[in-house]
Amino acid sequence: MNGRCWAALAACVAQLISAAPPAPATPAVSAGPLVRTDLGWVKGAQADDHRVFQGIPYAAAPTGNRRWRSPAPARPWPGVRNATQPGPRCAQPATPGQPTGTSEDCLYLNVTVPRTPGGRKPVMVWLHGGGFIEGAGSDFDAHHLATTGSVIVVTVNYRLGVFGLFAHRGLAGSGGFALEDQQAALRWVHRNATAFGGDPGNITLFGESAGGKSVCAHLASPRAAGLFHRAIMQSAPCTGTVPAGTMFPGVPAFRQWPSVADRQADGARLAARLGCADPATALTCLRRVPTARLLPLHDLFITPAVGSPVLPQNPERALATGTFHRVPVISGTTRDEMRYMVALFYELPGTPITARAYTRLLRRAFGEQADRVARRYPLSRYASPGLAWATLTTDVVFACPTYERNRSLAQRVRTYAFEFAGDDVLTKIPGSDFPLGSAHGAELAYLFPSTGLDAHRRQLSTTMIGYWTAFARTGDPNAPGLPRWQTFDPVRPSTQSLAAPPDTTGPTDVAAAHGCAFWAGQLG
To answer: Is 190 part of the annotated catalytic residue set?
Structure first.
């Protein structure tokens, strides 16, 4: 897509309501524990069953002349650093329900350590979602995950939007600074895991949405070699073609990974808008632009680009050809991914999708094949045209590309596929009564639980945490007391449905449920 197309996509992403679970009340803490990192002492907060260290710098502040450069080492500090509060959120526009981030000095991470017996613990490094334009590691309270599974959890801030993904001719690292930040955090974990009681030889990288897409990128990044030993991708949009208008209204068809060259051209246009058009001085000029002037243009850069040193090859091709890091993988989606986006952008209060509008959407997305798609998704099968569109777009944008990706992965590494089928208990869209089901981000309230889950949902939360942490420990999610999870076999593929009672957690046929044979013929 050209710059205008990416801008249209970004305008929709910018409206997404954050899916991060609300943090529960802070537990009572006692005198802070001390840990010596490679840069100095930190004092955290201590509860009965865990310790938390927040706002630890893993790289130097990317401010001033360091804007749009690879992360540099943080400086040592004297004495003891207070690590009881999170660091600043990376610069990002205001989002309903979340604080605004205005700081470019934001490369901080948080470490949650369980007070459980045993030797060195597995380390799980979480990359948050938010479309690469919003969010922070501190949005996620990891203490239940850490204490239930006896793992150390590290949550990470990384540069977002125009600050993390900007590209321009002559700018080394164009389109990949967010990924470089994440790798710098992983290197910090390697250097410091032992100090917190963790095992630097057992690191799991996991993330959702943009965080899952980042994990996909690191699987393909030569610079990530040896930085993690297992990978979990949740709702990761990193493979497949998105037909026109199926993810967001008015957005042309696109593939998931733009090229650095395309994005550099977009960067030149942005520079001209800011009065920095002269190629000889553009970068110097742009580095002097105040953060507040860049924030309105934040959403023009919303995904990493292919062709930089950190991401020289397209991750989709890397997974298809086997040129990726050979580590065990968990990979999957939620059952009703696109209901969230449909409720937010298409099924608006008072103006639901009509049968006529459904036909128009099909024509725009599929052209001459629209009638064939309509026969596969007839309105008579669904309670409303909106649910028909949500089902169709879930299949073509998320479920079937993920299924094909899992088939590629399983040919070379041990792969466990999942589909989360629990209710979305988190997302609230004002004025909307559209049924969300298991929408995009629904699993986050179960993986990072706070209060409000009933007994059946708590059981699903316990199962999911058990799977994730067993996988972090051994590379296999199976553990005593959990339903058996089969590996994904490319010949006889099996996906684990993660469901709350009275539904059953166990094998399901994702390809059949989501019409993946149809879409392989439609888009192949």
So the answer is: no
